[in-house]
Write a structure and sequence with these properties.
By secondary structure, the protein is an alpha+beta fold. It has one domain. The protein is about 45% helix and about 15% strand. It is built from two helices and four strands, in the order H-H-E-E-E-E. A four-stranded antiparallel β-sheet has the order 1-2-3-4. The longest helix has about 55 residues.
């Protein structure tokens, strides 16, 4: 008695093996994509933290300056603005030198005089200044903007801006 075997077990096992292989490949691709997403988020966080740190360092250094040094620094920013406005080649920005803990990150901090802009709402603190404060629109107070920018080698960057007023002592 000879039995006839048709080989259906072999065909079914090959189909199942192919399906399992495709599922495994899709999972590998998905995990690779998730790794790239996580790395990108980490780079964005690193740039954000670095730009926030250097902006705070620059503001602290500016506040720690003696009054005359700080005044001269801000007057130079104003002079550069008006010189640029009159068509001269001077920039309206003063670079503040800073060093990064990570040599691959490029940092820059600029302080510029912004007389023509109205004070941005995000810079105002309601308990400190209101419409009844000195100079209803704060037009008599020189305004400055500190912008800190951090850039990673892969092109990811973060910019943090702080507006501040210079009030006479």
């Amino acid at each position: 008695m000879r039995s006839r075997q048709s080989g259906s077990v072999l065909a079914i096992s090959l189909v199942l093996l192919t399906a399992i292989t495709l599922i495994a490949m899709m999972n590998m691709q998905r995990s690779g994509l998730q790794t790239k997403i996580v790395a990108n988020l980490q780079h964005h966080e690193m740039a954000f933290n670095q730009s926030t740190n250097i902006a705070e360092s620059a503001l602290n250094a500016l506040q720690a300056m003696e009054y005359e040094t700080k005044r001269e620094f801000l007057v130079n920013a104003q002079r550069a603005y008006y010189s640029h406005k009159e068509g001269n080649s001077a920039s309206n920005e003063i670079l503040y030198s800073t060093h990064s803990s990570n040599p691959l990150i490029t940092n820059s901090v600029t302080i510029s005089h912004e007389p023509s802009r109205s004070i941005k709402e995000e810079y105002l603190t309601t308990g400190i200044r209101s419409q009844f404060s000195r100079g209803k629109n704060l037009n008599d107070i020189p305004r400055f903007e500190l912008v800190a920018n951090s850039r990673l080698p892969n092109g990811i960057q973060s910019t943090q801006a702080f507006g501040f007023n210079s009030t006479p002592k």
